[in-house]
Amino acid sequence: MLADDPLGAQRETPGDLTPYRTAFARIDGDPHQHLVVAVQQGRTVGTLHLTVIPGLSRRGAARALIEAVRIHTDARGTGLGTRLIEWAIAESRRQDCVLVQLTSDATRVEAHRFYERLGFEASHLGFKMAL
Predict the structure, then answer these.
(1) What is the pLDDT of residue 108?
(2) What is the C-alpha to C-alpha distance for residues 58 and 73, in angstroms, rounded to an integer?
(3) In this structure, how many other beta carbons lie within 10 angstroms of the beta carbon of residue 55?
(4) Cys-Cys crosslink for 8: which of 3, 77, 114, 117, Cβ 3.0 to 4.6 Å?
(5) Which residues of the chain form beta strands (DSSP E)?
(6) Is the dihedral of CA 127, 115, 65, 17 positive or negative?
(7) What is the pLDDT along the chain (131 residues), one digit of tens a residue?
(8) Contact 95/52 with Cβ under 8 angstroms?
């Protein structure tokens, strides 16, 4: 699913699972990381990565970051993405986060509409630097 779109196809290498297994072990060993996998009929159909970030701003509040939201092509439009995001919001509240945030590539217009329907606001301008 990570490579199942034009952006992912450019940056993922599903033929070599070694870096993915290494990353999974790091995520699994960190209590601030929550990797959610949706399975239907024995098949992985969705993922979401939630990170709880402790902070000093906002009176020492924690915030949550949603990353790597992916829904298998066959499962899109079924409400699975909504359920995953709703879980992430509820878990963020449970972990006493004061906000939940995410970024989405500027070209993913449909994803932007999806997040806005769920109550997210485009409030910041993001920057990144490849290393």
Answers:
(1) 87
(2) 39
(3) 12
(4) 3
(5) 33-40, 43-53, 62-71, 97-102
(6) negative
(7) 676 766 666 777 778 889 989 999 999 999 999 999 999 999 999 999 999 999 999 999 999 999 999 999 899 999 999 999 999 999 999 999 999 999 988 888 999 999 999 999 999 988 889 89
(8) yes
Task: Kindly state the tokens that stand for 121.
Answer: 């606001």
CA dihedral 95, 91, 14, 130 (to 10 degrees): -50
| 62, 99 Cβ separation under 8 angstroms | no
User: How big is the CA angle at 110 (ends 109 and 112), to the nearest 5 degrees?
Assistant: 65
53: closest CA among 65, 45, 38, 35? 65
Return d(Cα 131, Cα 2) in angstroms, integer: 20
* pLDDT computed for residue 3 by the predictor: 65
Element (H, E) at 26: helix 18-28
- Cβ-based neighbour number of residue 47 at 10 Å: 18
Distance CA 33, CA 38 (A): 16
